[in-house]
Amino acid sequence: PTAASRAGATMELALTRHDLLQVSTLSRGCMRLLPRPAKAGELQKIAVGDDTGSLQVFGLVTSAKRSGMEVERVFQTPSASKAAISRLELSGEAGSERIYYAAGTLVRGCNRKGKEVLKFATDVTEPIRSMCVEGETIHAAGEFVYNEFVACKESGFLMANDRINDMTLVAAAPQPAAVLACQDRCLRVVRGSKVLFQLQVDGPATAVARCSRAPSGAGASGDIDQQVLYGTENGLVGLAVYDGAGLKGGWVIDPVDEGRRGKSGGGLCVRAADLTKSGGCNILVGRDDGLVEVWSLEGEGDAPQLVFERNLHESVVAIDCGAVSNTAFDEVVVATYSGKILSFSSAPSSSTSSASAPGAAVGAGAHPAGAEAQQLEKLAAEIDALQAKAERERALHARKAEASNGAVGGSAAAVKLQDKWALASADACYTLSLELAVPLEGVLLQSDVPVTLLEADSNLAIVSRAPAGQGVLAAYRCQEVTNRLELRVRTSEGRYGQLQAFVWPRISPKACVAATYAIKPLSLHERLHEPPPTAERPVMSSLRISGTFTLGEIHSWVSACLPGVPARLQGERGEFAFRNLLVGTLLLCDYGPGDAAFASDSLTTLAIAKEALAKEATARKVQLKIALDANEETVPALLERVDPLLRHQHSLHHKVLLLDSLREVATQEGESTFFAPEYAALLGDEAAVRRELKEHPARLELLHQVVTDLFVDQQKVRACAPSPGAVSGLQRLLAEAYSLPALLAFFRERG
What we know:
This protein is of the alpha+beta class. The strands form ten sheets. A six-stranded antiparallel beta sheet has the order 38-40-41-42-39-43, with helices on one face. The radius of gyration is 29 Å and the shape is globular.
């Protein structure tokens, strides 16, 4: 189901930010609020497990030295191992709850006072990334492997098709079942070693959480414990309902449909809560671009409404809701990648009580002028002392580096890189996000194939480009203090290689971290859930390949050629369908041991696949028999498909040139009332026209390249090399005198 457009939704919820604590860097899902205490008037505690391997629980108490509240640590465990805490979960009721946390392959548990109650070496083959605990049952998932343990004995094992990004539980008879959020755009309901059901979603599933509230609206039927919230890599947030007979989809929030194209960061954490205590439901969302969102499901409509939004400018790795500073008002508690723990309080400013009242908001209370001055002096003195200590440590580090001839490097934690390289369907380009736990100083991008670097709304860095032959070399220098940089990269199919990013933080001594991203031959193809029905498929050409390759070999070749292919293939054959995001052509893949068949309505797509697969086979010394059956009807059909895209881009460029002239005339004359109605209307739409061209720069050149490649590939299929004069003539026609009849005539005459 698709969500209706709600671009006109207004913000209704006013939340006040409070910074609570700074810890070491955090992994996803490593912050939780302990259950509400049974004793009235007590505040909830916050449990955090960081990358140093230490678990700490803290709460807010009334300060005895200053007005307002201060953080009080309940307990902190020592770093028992070098492994970072990768997941933190709670189990049990208030007062008897247990805190479980995973580090590497080890699972530990302690009570609310810090006494260890469990130390379990799971002996799983992968470090634990996701975990759920229900009674004596521990559900643990690594990158690809899911394990179930009952009383510390393995009772289930499953190898997933693709990477497992998150996990939660749903109520099911006779015992709860796990719901896995997988990279291959599926939610899978698993019990033991068996996949019970699965639901395909419109993006790689990155976050999933049990819905603890009963949301109203579309798709909300079913028991509360059987409703699941999920988030995807491309920014979708939705509801799935498990009814015992299957997993069914409910409402979906799509940032593109919402008119929030620039705010479509991937969902890293989702949670349901009654933040306003109105009896309804609020959906809390934390995104990898730093957005914290609250969506309301309290209305009578069938779709969520956005009521709060705040950008923290760094990844939100955990989100929860509860009373941490005021028993009368709940807060959204958020943890970021760099280790910031902060809250957004729903308490109105008029409700803040005196400093001595328990449960007062952070920093609340009336401050006499003298007391405020004394508090400011103390804070200034603390800052000066910290700055002096930092200078001493910096000087000590510099002396050690000098004594060891520069062998002392930067902190490993400081240069730990969190990145994402993902295909953005709406813009037919890739999004590259780079994030460190400390402020960035700059990023150097190097590509061995031609790519186009597009502007991103959130990117305020200054870019410098340098000649790099056929590739790209560009440097981004951050002027403002930021931990995160987001870039957009448009690739061209058939030009494949690698993109390297060198990231250096603003620390001393200097350090750098490098990352490499694959630009695949058919990089702008997105995998479909199901191929279209046979009756709806266009006229297609086919490519057949046979040889002595195994299923694993051909699957690895297809994975190297196309994005979105699962890392592991279960079954005896691979069957996938892809859609080109730029021109909408279709590609069907069907392969097994010794044979592979590909069909597409684009000759260029098959030519690229043929070249890429042959190159992979040659590298492994595998002989192939390749047969390309080209259907000539696909050429004019593709040109007709591209025609409206070309005409729109030509019109867009013409409008921009015309707007420049109209603006110049209006400036010279001092008014624009004398323009013809169509010119006046164009001036009224100037902002939308220029915004569209800015969002999709160089798309016209990319479409010209698509047509040129089609002509070249058509000539190659006919075993005749295209002359340089023919190619330059086609490019002149596209740029200066384009029309569909003229283009079709050119292909007929030169073909």
